[in-house]
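Mods, move this if it's the wrong board.
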Amino acid sequence: MITDKVQTVRIQPGDHIEAWHNGKLFHKGRVTDVVHSLELIWIRDARTGTRKLLDPDALEIIKVAAPQAAG
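Not the wrong board. Structure tokens:
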């Protein structure tokens, strides 16, 4: 019997994430807020510095390590 395991990773403010769609990276940044009732994630986009609202139903959200400070 083959089963698919789905691992749910709880995203919370302060986490660093990447948001992918069809194999392409669309956004990456630090989570600033999570709206659990609507299942939406706010991030500060690392590339543009702007705030982005992400829909986990439309994107593959991956939790990643925090970027290293330039030095």
